[in-house]
Amino acid sequence: MTTKIRRQIRNEDYEDPLTSKHRFSAAKLETKNLRARFGKVEVLRGINLRFPENSVTAIMGPSGCGKTTLIRCLNRIHELTPGAKVEGEVILDGINIYSPKVDPVAIRKRIGMVFQKPNPFPTMSIFDNTVAGLKLNGVRDKKKIVASAEKSLRMAFLWDEVKDDLKKPGTALSGGQQQRLCIARALAVEPEIILMDEPCSALDPVATAKVEESIVALKKDFTIIIVTHNMQQAARISDFTAFMYLGQLIEFGETSEVFEKPENELTEKYITGKFG
Amino acid sequence: MQFRLNGDAILTILVAAAALFIIGLIVAITVELYHIAAPSIFRFGPAFLSGEEWEVNKNEFGALPFIYGTLVTSAIAILIGFPISLGVAIFISEKLKSHRMFGYSLGTVVDLLAAVPSVVYGLWGVFVLVPLLRDYIEKPLNHYLGFIPLFSGHPEGFDFFSAGIILAIMIIPTMSAVSRDVLKAVPNNQREAMYSLGATDWEVTQKSVLPYARSGIFGGFILGLGRAFGETMAVVMVIGNIPNITANLFSPGYTLSSLIANEFGESTGLYESSIIEIALILFAVALLVNFVARFLLWRMSRGMEVKV
Amino acid sequence: MTKSNLSANVSLQRKIVNVLMTILVLVAVVLALVPLILILGDVFVKGAPAMSLDFLINRPTAPNLPGGGIAPAIEGSFVMVGLATLISIPIGVGAGIFFSEWSTSKLSTVSGFMNDVLTGFPTMVIGLFVFILIVLTTKTYSAFAGGVALSFIMTPIIARTTSESLKLVPTTLREASMALGIPRWKTILRIVLGTGKNGLLTGILLAIARASGETAPLLFTAATSTLFIKNLMQPTASITILIYYYALSSVPSWISQAWGAALLLIIIMLSLNLFVKLVIGRSLTEARME
Fold this sequence. Notes:
The complex is a heterotrimer of chains A (276), B (308) and C (290).
Chain A: H1 3-10, H2 17-22, E1 27-38, E2 41-52, E3 56-60, H3 67-74, E4 84-92, E5 95-96, H4 104-110, E6 111-114, H5 126-136, H6 142-155, H7 159-162, H8 175-188, E7 193-197, H9 205-218, E8 223-227, H10 231-237, E9 240-245, E10 248-254, H11 255-260, H12 265-271
Parallel strand pairs in A: 3-8, 3-9, 6-7, 7-8
Antiparallel strand pairs in A: 1-2, 1-4, 4-5, 9-10
Chain B: H1 7-44, H2 47-50, E1 54-55, E2 60-61, H3 64-95, H4 100-115, H5 118-145, H6 160-184, H7 188-195, H8 201-230, H9 233-238, H10 256-263, H11 269-301
Antiparallel strand pairs in B: 1-2
Helix pairs in contact in B: 1-11, 3-4, 3-6, 3-8, 4-6, 6-8, 7-8, 8-11, 10-11
Chain C: H1 12-47, H2 53-57, H3 71-101, H4 106-119, H5 123-138, H6 143-168, H7 171-179, H8 184-195, H9 197-212, H10 216-219, H11 239-248, H12 252-280, H13 284-288
């Protein structure tokens, strides 16, 4: 690492990459000086990021850069880990979701999450898995529930494969199908933002392609933030890319620009495979 | 596989013999008990199970009051002990997540209840619990709610109720320890999946953790039930030891194992034979509980394989 | 679709349920702890006055005569549990090895199931069986019969915990050993048993603790006595049986001694439990779990 890069990282007041270029974009979700730690170890060191609405933003970086912690802070899941602490603000539609007046339970309905390893509820059928969140939030109207199940499964590109047997247990599906089921489950509660933590890393290429297909189709209705270590995937499906390193945001911009003309030396090194 | 008298063969024979011994033990118990119980079995036949009289002088023996007593006390024990055990397990595993040391210590303390021998429970029961229950729970309940058959009668303390309570206390540590371990084993991403759908703490527990862990919890339930059925000493010291079939919880009763403990020593002939038949019933119940548990556990875990 | 049409606030009802359940769970914890505190407290308060050197090393005196102790019972318990341990370790460990290393054989499945049945077995019935088997044939109550009865309770426990501990030993260890040309029997006895020895020890201590607290199986096998042991084929006292009979007697000095004996027993059980937890790191009930 050259001294130039080291200086950049230690300088806490470096210029907010997002402000400079995309100040005018409609930001659905915004972080202000977001810091996060596990016990004494600081994992996020002041992240300032604006996620544009109805787009796919990829968050990339080498292992340990904090990208997973970042999205877990966005729906307030990070704080559930014993010893975890969050400082700073995350603003959704003008409201700081970390303000004491805000109920995290309510926030998690508006910001959904798909996990790295597919985790359908094993004691529930495909149908019940899909509408689990819906039922939780008090929706009782049977017609609404059935309609929502079909809609969500269609949006996740899973409907055709399971429509004939929705009573099968959620775990009776293949890995890729399970992940799409988890996407459908997240969709059913009608969130505005969907967070995805390396959703395809446990899947084979065919399953991955299907999931990517659904992500691209979803962005016209949702804002999607996806953590990925797969650069080709980011290039394929994302509109914007954020590059992180050692808990800090190094660069943010339109994906094509970040990949072809990275402004920061670190970004360039990562993209060309020199590390990470 | 060649058969030489080498180390392998010797070890195999020895350990297989040990395993055979276990089977032999159960077989031997069955045979011996049946042998001595035979006179009673042939005398009374299946009517033994529904017979209500237990009269030594008339040589009339029926097991129903004792079966009833065992069932009632076990039912009380489970009804009270199971929710408490589950509550403790949920508290330690879900609420004390961020305070691992507290959870571990609390778990240790609850486990201490299991280190207390049955006869000490009985001793404490006779001199402390029975008067306590009688004066602070049974008498008031009898006074205010005496019109309900459960609470009628003249509470003296040595009754179904006290026996049930003491059994409940005795089975809590077992059921709670098993539940605790299965709850801890539920993968975190199941909880997180529920949370990310916008669930409250309790909803996560109720809809994600508990269903996932249900076969293990059920296993603990069965263990507790088995212990309640077979428990002898504490029960015999507080139940009053009078054969009685009544809905009144505050009257003395008798269980299968208490009968054996109390009356076997002096028994001869048909009397003795009938008591051994009672022991056989206890044996059969223990076997049955085990079979049913195993079957249900197998049924429950069938749909649960997570393939990825 | 950009705006969610479900209410963004969590309904009051759900919040109330959440708080209510938290309270209920706390109540459960309190209800579980109260009896424990009461029992341990009472045993200590009522038992401590009875504790004295006289209590620990002397024979009982006639009812209502002061003094006297429970020494024969202490000796009896010690001897019978010791005898039971000697019998149950080889059989229990042997069966446990079989369950773990020959787990695919039919004998293993059947015997394993029987073993599970025996672990929760009503101990009264075991006592009766040994009565028929030994007391009737030898025409006397004896420490031997008592020890055998206790061993039938200890063996399944030891077999189960041994089997579980050995199953935890990774297969690669066995394979590595065999690949070095070490015969199977040595692999099992040296490598597998050696790796799993903590679990084994836990199981044995657990079984000893269990047997020390048992009363029902001794009722009709060893019965009781006020004398020290002269030989193993005579009725023998034990701490648990003593507590039982003294508690039901109406002799105040004996009742007090029952509390003292209970205190002694609790101290022994807690020490065993704590020893296992601190030194070996697992609780006795954890080790007992399915």
